[in-house]
Amino acid sequence: MAIEKRFFGNLDENTPIYLYKITNAQGASVTLQTLGAGIQSLCMPDRDGNLADVVLGFDDPKLYTDPDYGYQGLTVGRWANRIRDGKFTFHGRECHTPQNQGSWTLHGGGRFSFTPWEVAETGDDYIVFSRFSPDGEDGFPGDFTMTVKYTLTQDNVLRIEYTVNSDVDTVANPTNHAYFNLSGDPNKTVEAHTLQILADAFTETDASQLPTGVLSPVKGTMMDFTQPHPIGDRIDEPFRAVIDGVGYDNNYCLRSRDGSFAPAAVLADPSSGRKMTVVTDLPGLQLYCGGWLSRDYTVGKGDSLVTYRRGVALETQFYPDTVNFPDSFPFWYVKGGVPFTTVTEFRFTADA
Ligand code: BGC
Q1: Measured between alpha carbons, how far is 77 from 224 in angstroms, rounded to an integer?
Q2: Does 161 participate in catalysis according to the annotation?
Q3: For a pocket test of ligand 1, which of 72, 75, 105, 292 has the largest count of ligand atoms closer than 8 A to its C-beta?
Q4: Tens digit of pLDDT for each residue in 310-331?
Q5: Does ligand 1 come within 6 angstroms of the Cβ of 46?
């Protein structure tokens, strides 16, 4: 089935945002938006074949550009997650990145998420978005082009391939910030979803959620998702690396950290049977359950209220602030003139 394009809305009078919908033979579909090369909707079947949208979001592109609304479904670049004090040194060059949250950088400052991307190419089952970022933009080295290719396969796999080209050596940590609610009902919290993460350790963090450099075992703590169990079981337990009332917002150190493409997590919703397996070649996964989203938002898609803990983000990534731990955290950088690629898949199935 051919890709369908339609107008989504205007960011301002000169900035239209478009949607591109890919549908497979089973009727499953993904709708991507040019704003932030983002996922706007993802319709997947439950155990009876009923399709429902399994990602949170909005009906108006402008709402996506409010950082307090949580980067819903958007691509994050150049560097996902946190950079302490908005600075790091790379190949002897001191880089100063936006201190857009507290004293640190969050999600590269937000520019990659909150601006429109070019559409470089489309096919029946894929689209490629592209964004050029000049040397020094937001402090990062290199004339830098990122492309994001989304493919929806016939067997309900959403594949995301990020490719970076830079003229000189630089750093990149692209991710996607979709919030999944596999029940298809954004008024239900994700606490009844079961989760398994193939990780035996997590990055210890300080009071500002910045890594200390220590990797600690999950065993015996609320962080342990080595066996599948409901997210809500221990989410409100007091724990040193979790902010009270927020719940999980932590980076897991995946078992596979050598760049091989391997399963990272399995999320399942017992009520609908929908299940999603995350596969990636990156070494980390941020588990974030929407605990910073306000408890009283009154916006969402349709008449849904997008609120606290209504979605779970599983952000594949290099560990937060790796640019300040390049020798101790697993890391490979972008080599000048050599394409850098990373792939994440969200594979959907349904349990009987
Ligand atoms: C961060 C959260 C943040 C959210 C939305 C996540 O990756 O870890 O702390 O609130 O993104 O910006």
Answers
A1: 29
A2: no
A3: 292
A4: 999 999 999 999 999 999 999 9
A5: no
